[in-house]
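Issue 218. Parser rejects a valid record. Input:
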Amino acid sequence: MDPQAGTNRTAVTEFILLGLVENEELQSVVFVLFLFAYLVTVGGNLSILAAILVESKLHTPMYFFLGNLSVLDVGCITVTVPAMLGRLLSHKRTISYEACLSQLFFFHLLAGMDCFLLTAMAYDRFLAICRPLTYSIRMSQTVQWTLVAVSWACAFTNALTHTIALTTLNFCGPNEVNHFYCDLPQLFQLSCSSTQLNELLLFAACFIMAGVVLVLIITSYIHVAAAVLQIQSVEGKKKAFSTCGSHLTVVCLFYGTGIFNYMRLGSVEASDKDKGVGIFNTVINPMLNPLIYSIRSPDVHGTLWRVFVRR
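Output the parser choked on:
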């Protein structure tokens, strides 16, 4: 064993991200598609945020959380896609060990925040529909900011834990990452040392974020569904299901891809499938979120039309 590897704990100073395709012609197609997706995602989410800021009717808890979600979507795609586009342009596929850790940290920070924020949004819908008389008190501005602050704290703790745990691993052999960004399952496969503790930490985090948190969301919507079915007005039911349907669609997309990616560790052959899941997590989900909310929410759709079309 290299003595230098024993002192530094890491002999590998950079990784090679293999990306999505190796053919140069296909790389040009991938570049155009991902650049278009990035511009659409950033533009769509910033449009949602602008509509919420300029329209006083949207200054409600539900749209406060939606504005935060739009910021997270912009951050999530910005952590991964611009770096990938830069590598496609320069034909340089290497990324330094420190840059890889930084990308991993910020990706898990934003993805974790997304998870906890979706839970806060489910709680907001529960209070709005099941506890309407006390909604303004229970979901005051102080409560809203507290929920966001706690979500950031939990996401930061989760991301920092995984990043620090990853620094304890030895990377002294292969350095080719079969992905287009740095993520835990792919890096585990390259480690020269045991990843048992790291995989246990990741499984525990998934159990909390995809198990306990998802149970809270489902429980909230069971109560919401029971309350909506008791509404006599057809228009009232339609409006309630419309606002909740957008959130449920986003939850299904987010948790479906997340569970598939992180709950089946130890499979070397799964890397190619992980690329598809990674595209969903970092590109498609953030791009679809503004579309889902603007189509299913008449208030957002009307504001966007008035602000960006009529003017």
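Fixed in the parser; the record now loads. Confidence is low (pLDDT under 50) at residues 1-10.
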